[in-house]
Specification:
Blueprint (H helix, E strand, L loop, with lengths): L1 E3 H5 L9 H10 L3 E7 H4 L3 E11 L7 E6 L4 E6 L9 E5 L4 E2 L2 E2 L3 E3 L2 E3 L2 E2 L2 H4 L10 E2 L9 H4 L5 E6 L10 H12 L21 E4 L7 E8 L8 H9 L7 H13 L4 E4 L7 E6 L4 E4 L5 E4 L4 E5 L2 E5 L3 E2 L12 E7 L2 H11 L4 H6 L7 H17 L3 E2 L3 E4 L6 E6 H8 L5 H10 L3 E5 L2 E6 L10 H12 L20 H15 L3 E2 L5 E2 L1 H7 L19 E2 L4 H13 L5 E11 L8 E11 L1 E3 L8 E2 L2 H15 L5 E5 L5 E11 L2 E9 L1 H6 L6 E7 H6 L16 E10 L4 H11 L4 E10 L8 E10 L8 H19 L2 E2 L2
Helix pairs in contact: 6-13, 7-8, 8-11, 21-22
């Protein structure tokens, strides 16, 4: 929002403060000033001149030679415009003036000297009119500076305001802030609100829902004839980036910026009735707005209507059919208060924002509607003369807008860390317009209507006191905290180490959104539900919190392949979300997922190329388990999942607790996503995994006695799994068995159909002495006996 310094001075006596001091005060109190433009400096060396003579240029048909009186001299100026006459007053840029990017200097134009430049409104940056030079009022004083003559001897400041301060979205609001900061007396116009309110019933206002429109005020102005907008009003609106239209519209904008209350004027003679109806729209109802666009209204939008239909979109934009025009004689001035969230929704749906909607969205003070009409009337009569004005028609339920807050002086000191005397606290509150009473340590503050929306609690008042008292007045004190040495938790240490390990193996970490679509849930056949749907998803692709990391990881493969990267080794550490029958059943799990796809090894001199397979995925899993928990606690049990290939699908158990799953992504899923290569995946629940990680590093002496290695080849049924056999071997042997490893599986000739041969390498060693062959044979035979008993195993010779 922009305001000007001279405009502020109408409501404050702050002549002793320069612009930089005002900017500093506002910024340090939390009302940040974004920029400042000194228009007097911008228009330096630009004077009011009068055209005395006009003659054709001897060497150019489209140029003229003008003699222009600027008060102290008569200048010869070459001009390309043709919209002026002798005796017209114009803006003349002298040598040294800066007009936009152009610095004016004496120069020859087609053989004739030009000692300055007659300017257009666009060249001066104050209008969009570039059709000719700017013709000024005939009463403009020749030789006077352009800035002083047209009220541009001012500084415009742009202020960044927070949404919770609708009271500051006006000149008077900023003046109130400066008054509180400096103690300067505030000079807000005072009106008698007991007069001219609903003194007749010739015009009616009907509000269908006071929740959407708490107040609607209006007045009828009659017998108007077209008048010019005063220069000071035009200048101030221009400096605040408001487009000039005509006196009535300019004044509505002027009052809106001045007191923060939007106004709208209807041509009274174009309204179909002597009644305004404030209601919600009808289904597929349409209105042509002032910008000439036809807009469709729905049943959630608030409109202003006469008996024939809508004449404005409430709080957003007026209708084209009833707008003020050059033939307007009588007009209805609207000053209303609308529900902020309702206006925001309407503005967003229509993609239409205006200065009015920007203010209404922030919940304006309903007490300002009548004030704004009276201020408009005062300015209108000073600009256009006395006119017949009706009573102010006002529909208002007078809702309770009084709030009392008890403020403890001890609490102020506790929060701010510095004692401020009760009388000073009371004075600060009064400068903010907050009446209060002191009783010992307690101040009872009465919140004014214009601060009703943002001052709700004791802490809000303490913040206001700090702002106005001045942050720079607080003594800096070092924080009194106990010295503590920070450290990582067990979970953080293990998680960081796992990430480092996986990166060391050449995997890349990916970070995905926590949302997936319904189609992904269905496509991957993720079970069980129910799944958690967002109340307000960004779009249909982000409709659900993801119950598994698989869809996102497969999407990563698809995106990489589409970008020419077919060899993918990635991992992700993130959360999954699952719901249940009640809120208490909601689960949020920390998961580690690994995905491998494409080539593991390129073709090279020592071997052929090789693709990732299930055992690469399993090897990474075993590494993680072994390093942090112990491989002996790992169990992989076959379990079919719909999103895995049925023959390569398993659950992961650690210390007999299910912690995850692994497998090969189902070919149908990959084919549906146009992925023509296998993908292998595992995921583990990190909370369960880390909770089971109690492995301690223990020192063991290097054995001095030799080990003994024996091979065992057995024939078993095809259904018998390797993990079952290894588990049985370890259970059957004693402490002398140090290692067991599968090194061959064979099916074919010499092996009965439905059977397979499995060959294991067994390593025996005693840490106290050398094992004998007889001892090793005893252990070997015991193992074979147990395998025969459990699996009907036959020793293959």
């Amino acid at each position: 929002m922009k305001v000007t310094i001279n405009w502020l001075k109408e409501f404050l006596d702050i002549d002793e403060l320069d612009v930089d001091e005002i900017i500093g005060l506002l910024t340090m109190s939390g009302t940040e000033v974004k920029s400042a433009v000194d228009y007097k400096k911008r228009f330096d060396n630009i004077l009011i001149g009068q055209i005395k003579e006009v003659a054709p240029h001897p060497d150019a048909d489209k140029l003229t030679l003008c003699s222009v009186d600027v008060g102290t001299d008569v200048l010869s100026i070459v001009c390309g415009a043709s919209n002026f006459n002798v005796s017209d007053r114009v803006a003349v840029a002298l040598e040294g003036a800066l007009v936009g990017e152009l610095k004016i200097k004496k120069s020859k134009i087609r053989g004739q000297y030009s000692e300055g430049m007659m300017c257009s409104g666009k060249e001066l940056g104050i209008s969009s009119d570039a059709d000719g030079i700017m013709i000024l009022d005939e009463n403009a004083c020749i030789g006077n500076t352009f800035a002083e003559e047209l009220a541009f001897d001012d500084v415009a400041i742009e202020i960044e305001l927070t949404p919770n301060r609708p009271d500051c979205f006006s000149v008077m609001g900023i003046a109130r802030e400066i008054s509180a900061l400096t103690g300067a007396a505030l000079k807000i116009p005072s009106y008698d609100f007991s007069k001219d309110i609903n003194t007749d019933s010739s015009f009616a206002i009907e509000i269908k829902d006071y929740g959407l429109c708490p107040r609607y005020s209006a007045a009828i102005f009659s017998d108007y004839s077209l008048k010019k907008t005063p220069d000071i009003i035009k200048a101030r609106l221009t400096m605040c980036d408001v487009r000039l239209v005509d006196l009535i519209v300019d004044l509505t904008n002027y009052v809106m910026i001045e007191c923060g209350q939007p106004l709208h004027a209807f041509d009274k003679d174009l309204l179909a009735s002597d009644k305004i109806i404030v209601r919600t729209g009808l289904d597929k109802e349409k209105i042509k707005t002032i910008d000439s666009s036809v807009r469709e209204i729905d049943e959630d939008m608030l409109v202003i209507s006469d008996i024939n239909g809508p004449v404005a979109i409430a709080g957003v934009m007026g209708g084209k059919e009833t707008e003020i025009n050059k033939d307007t004689k009588n007009f209805l001035l609207e000053s209303a208060n609308f529900n902020g969230p309702s206006i925001m929704r309407t503005s967003k749906k229509l993609g239409l924002r205006s200065e009015a909607s920007n203010r209404f969205e922030k919940k304006l003070d309903p007490l300002s509607t009548v004030f704004a009409i009276k201020r408009f009337k005062e300015l209108f009569e000073s600009s256009a003369g006395s006119h017949k004005v009706s009573t102010i028609y006002d529909s208002y339920l007078y809702p309770q807008r009084e709030r009392f807050i008890e403020l403890r002086i001890s609490k102020v000191e506790q929060i701010l860390g510095q004692r401020i005397e009760p009388c000073d606290v009371s004075a600060i509150l009064k400068r903010l317009g907050i009446d209060n009473e002191i009783k010992g340590d307690l101040i009872t503050a009465k919140i004014p209507s214009f601060r009703y929306e943002d001052l709700e609690r004791e802490i809000d008042l303490i913040e206001e006191i700090a702002r106005i008292y001045g942050f720079e007045r607080f003594s800096p004190e070092p924080l009194s905290i106990r010295s503590r040495v920070g450290g990582l938790s067990k979970k953080q240490k293990i998680l960081r180490a796992i990430k480092s390990d996986l990166a060391g193996f050449g995997l890349f970490e990916v970070i995905n959104y926590s949302f997936i679509s319904k189609s992904q849930i269905d496509g991957f056949k993720i079970k069980p539900g129910p799944f958690i749907r967002l109340l307000n998803p960004l779009n249909e692709d982000f409709e659900y919190l993801r119950p598994s990391l698989i869809p996102s990881m497969v999407k990563n493969i698809q995106v990489n392949i589409n970008h020419g990267n077919k060899d993918i080794a990635i991992f992700e550490v993130s959360k999954t979300f699952k719901s249940g029958a009640s809120v208490e059943d909601f689960k949020e799990n920390n998961m580690l997922a690994v995905m491998l796809s494409g080539q593991k090894d390129d073709k090279n001199w020592y071997g052929p190329e090789r693709n990732f397979d299930f055992f690469d995925s399993k090897a990474l899993l075993e590494f993680v388990i072994d390093k942090y928990c112990g491989l002996k606690y790992l169990r992989i049990k076959q379990k079919e999942y719909d999103h895995f290939n049925p023959s390569i699908s398993a659950d992961i158990y650690l210390k007999d607790e299910l912690i995850g799953m692994m497998g090969m992504i189902h070919p149908i899923i990959l084919n549906d996503m146009d992925i023509k290569q296998d993908a292998f995946y595992f995921e583990i629940d990190l909370d369960k995994f880390i909770g089971a990680c109690d492995k301690k590093k223990e020192f063991k002496k290097i054995p001095i006695y030799p080990s003994m290695e024996m091979d065992m080849a057995i024939v078993v049924d095809e259904e018998v799994r390797t993990s079952q056999v290894i588990e049985e071997i370890k259970k059957s042997a004693d402490a002398n068995l140090k290692d067991v490893r599968l090194f061959d599986i064979y099916k074919g000739k010499q092996i009965e159909e439905g059977k397979k041969s499995m060959a294991f390498s067994l390593v025996f060693q005693n840490s106290q002495r050398t094992l004998t062959d007889i001892e090793a044979d005893l252990i070997f035979n015991k193992i074979l006996e147990k395998l025969t008993k459990r699996f009907n195993a036959i020793l293959r010779k």
